[in-house]
């Protein structure tokens, strides 16, 4: 004969264990959702890093600083950013060790063919490593310079590579971009500003035409 009180006591005896198993099952169901959320966050951060971002700089609205850069063998340079006047130009901080610099490199090669004036500043690099990198992947720069110790680019407030600055006709820094310059970044941030700055009148000495790098 079935005893109601006995069965009730028996079930209550095993209830804590069953409840614990239920909680564990719920945790196992929630765990994949947590992992998915973490992966999504890191993926978003990765995309943002690749695309780069426009950042404020203490130099914005001020003259580009004078730098004492070293020459890179077999390539035209070095240059002094403080004398970049008469034409709108880009100053691109790069390095042969920089993965994202290679990611943006085809964009600069195409821009060079379009007549965009680009100056390259190799940061924390060696003369031969920088030269070989340019010879392997192509040199989009009108002139290049080298800062082996990283002390000179500190004047630009550089925090990493790549970074790219727009310098107007008067030698004033007008824009700073951290990260690679992709086609989308170029069309969104660089092209409109360069067109605007290029249309501004320039009153000053006629700049010498830069020679193309070898």
What is the molecular shape?
globular
Strand order of the largest sheet: 1-6-5-2-3-4
Query: Strand-residue fraction?
Result: 5-15%
Alpha-carbon distance between the two ends = 101 Å
Helix content: 40-55%
Q: Which class do the helix and strand fractions yield?
A: alpha/beta
Mean pLDDT: 80
List SSEs in N-to-C order: HEEHEHEEEH
Q: Largest sheet at a glance?
A: 6 strands, mixed
How many helical elements?
A: 4
Uncertain stretches of 5 or more adjacent residues: 30-50, 209-214
Q: Give the number of DSSP strands.
A: 6
Give the radius of gyration: 28 Å
Walk me through this protein's architecture:
This protein is α/β, with parallel strands linked by helices. It has 4 helices and 6 strands, in the order H-E-E-H-E-H-E-E-E-H. The longest helix is centred in the first third of the chain and has 48 residues, at 4-51. The radius of gyration is 28 Å and the shape is globular. Residues 30-50 and 209-214 have low confidence and may be disordered.
